[in-house]
Amino acid sequence: MIQLFGVSKKYGTFRDALVDVSFRIDPGEFVFLTGPSGAGKSTLLRLLFLEEPPSAGQIIVNGRNIGVLPQSQIPYLRRTMGVVFQDFKLIGRKTVFENIAFVQNVLGLARVEQKRRAYHVLKRVGLHHLMNAYPDELSGGEQQRVAIARAIVNEPTVLLADEPTGNLDPVLAEEIMRLFVEFNIRGTTVVVATHDVEMIRRMGKRTLTLERGHLHDPDRTREGAPIVREAPFLPLN
Amino acid sequence: MPRARYVVSEAWSVARSSPRQTAAAVTLIALALYVPGLLALVSHNLSRLSVTEAEPTAVVLTLEAQADARALSARLATDGRIKTVRIVGSDAALERFRRAYPDLGAALSDLKEAPFPPSIEVVLKPGAPPRTATEIAAAARLWPGVDSVESEEEFSRRFRDAIALVRNAGLFLGAILTLAAVLSVASAVRLALDLHRDEVGIMRLMGATESAIRAPFWLYATAEGFVGGGLALGFLYATYRFATHWLARDPHPVLAVLWVGFLPIPTALLLPAAGAAAGLFGSLLSLGRKETRRVTRIA
C-alpha cells in the first residue's frame, strides 16, 4: 500500500513541484499518474522510491514511513520496489543479463539462480534470446523491456514506471502496457506516470491527475470523497 | 556484504575503465615506496656492522704497515684498566670480513694487496671508568707506528648517528612520498567514481547498499597499492642485484658494505603491504559518504 499525507516538494524558495498531495493506493491496484509536462509526476515517483526526500508531509510505502527511514534501510526498501525509468537507465558496458543480474549479484545470489531468474523475466518480456547483447545493440522498445525485466526480477510488491511508453511507437506502447497489466494481475501494485491521455482512456484504470503540483480529485472516482487525513502531520526536519 | 566475485569483477572493470590513471597511481606508489625501501636496505646493511659482540672492543688502533704490533700491544697491556689486547693482522681482518660478508668475499680475492691494514683491538675491564676508552685513544694517537685510533665511544656514536640519519631520512621521505601516493590513489579513485557515476546512481536506485557500491573501489585502490608496492620491491631487488654485480666487478671497500645482503623477507613484504594500506587509505579518503553522494547525485 502507498499513502501520501500532505506531501509537498519545493526546489529552492519559490518552485513548488508538489503542493499538499494526499492519496492512497491499495495493494494490487493499477494507477495512472497523469498531467502535463512539469506537473510533478516524475517528482512524485522520485519521492516514492526515495531518490529525494519530501519537503513536508509523510509517505507510507508497504506500511513504512519512508520519511523517517534510516539511510542504511533505504536500499532494502528499494528492493521491494521495481522502477522503470523513462530513459531506461541501463548500464552500457554490461550485457542485458548483467544489467538484470547485478542487483542479485550484490545480494549474493548464486550465478545459476541469477541466470535462472534473468532468463525467466526476459522470457516474460520476450527478450530471452538477447541475454548477451549490450544495450546499444537493442532498439528503444527492447531497451525499455530490459528495464522492465530488471524492475520485476526481484518480484517487487510495487512497480513504478515513469513515462514507460514515452519513446515508443503505439504498437510497442500497447505491448508494454499489456506487460504491466499482466504483472498487476499477478498481484503487483503498479503506478504508471504518463501524459498519454488516449492510452489512459483505453486502459480504464484509476487515474490521479497532477497539475502544477496539485492533485485533482484524488480517489474521488473510486470512493466518492477525498481520503480522510487520519494520520498526524509531522514535520520531517 | 556483497559477493566476492561481484566485487572482484567490478574492481577489475573500474581498473580497465581508466588505465592511464591506474598506471599513474601504481607508478607513483612504486616510486613512493622504492625510495624508503632503498634507504631501509642501506640502513639494514649498516646495522649489521654495529652488532654488539660479547666483549665489545673499546678502542681500535689502526697501524702503519711497518709498525711493531707486538711492542705496541705490550705497551697497552701495562694499563691496569685494560682486560685484553688483540692483534688483528691484515690476513685475519680479511678473513673476518669474508666471514661477516660471504657475498663479497669473491670480489676481495681478486685484489693483489691486503685491503685491510693491521690493527690492535683493546677490550676494557668491566669496571673501567666511563672515559677510559677516550683517554687510551688520545694517548695512543701520539705513539709512533699508529696511523689512527678510534675509541668505541666515538666510533659507535658516529656509526649510530649515520644509521639513524639514513633511517630518519628514509622515514621522512617515505612519509612525504606515501602521502603523495595516497593522494594520487584518492584522485584516481575519485576519477574512476566520476566515470562510473551513472552506474553508481543506477545501482543505488536498484537497491545496492553503500558497501556494495564502494567495495569494488576499495578493492581497486588496495590492489593498485599492492601492485605498486610489489613493483617497488621488484625495482629494489633489481637495484640490489645490479649493485652487487657491479661491485663484484669493481670492488669498493665502503660501497660494498652497503650492499651486503637484501632485506629480510618479512621486511621486504612490508613494501606491498604498505602499498595496499596506502591504497585502501586513499580510497577511504576519496569515498567518504558525502563524496559518493555528491558524485552520484549528479547522475
Q: Main sheet of chain A?
A: 6 strands, mixed
Task: Name the assembly state.
Answer: heterodimer
Strands side by side in the biggest sheet of chain A: 6-7-8-3-9-10
Number of helices of chain A: 8
Largest sheet of chain B: 4 strands, antiparallel
Beta strands of chain B, count: 4
Judged by helices, strands and strand pairing, the structural class of chain A is: alpha/beta
Structural class from helices and strands of chain B? alpha+beta
Order of helices and strands of chain B: HHEHEHHEHEHHHHHH
Radius of gyration of chain B: 28 Å
- End-to-end C-alpha gap of chain B: 24 Å
Radius of gyration of chain A: 18 Å
Query: What's the total helix number of chain B?
Result: 12
Distance between the termini of chain A: 24 Å
Question: Which H/E pattern describes the elements of chain A?
Answer: EEEHEEHEHHHEHEHEEH
> What share of the residues of chain A does DSSP label as strand, in percent?
15-25%
Task: Please describe what this structure looks like.
The complex is a heterodimer of chains A (237) and B (299). Chain A contains eight helices and ten strands. Chain A starts with a strand and ends in a 14-residue tail after the last helix. In chain A, strand 9 and strand 10 form a beta hairpin. Chain A is globular, with a radius of gyration of 18 Å. A six-stranded mixed beta sheet of chain A has the order 6-7-8-3-9-10, sandwiched between helices. In chain A, strands 2-1-4-5 form a four-stranded antiparallel beta sheet, covered by helices on one side. Chain A is α/β, with parallel strands linked by helices. Chain B has 299 residues and is α+β, with helices and mostly antiparallel strands. Chain B has two domains: 4-50 and 158-297, no CATH class; 59-153, Alpha-Beta Plaits. In chain B, 70% of the residues lie in helices and 8% in strands. Chain B is built from twelve helices and four strands. A four-stranded antiparallel beta sheet of chain B has the order 2-3-1-4. In chain B, helix 1 (4-17) packs across helix 9. The radius of gyration of chain B is 28 Å and the shape is elongated. Mean pLDDT of chain B is 81; it is low at 294-299. Classes of the chains: A alpha/beta (237), B alpha+beta (299). Chains A and B meet through helix 2 and helix 3 of A and helix 1 and helix 8 of B.
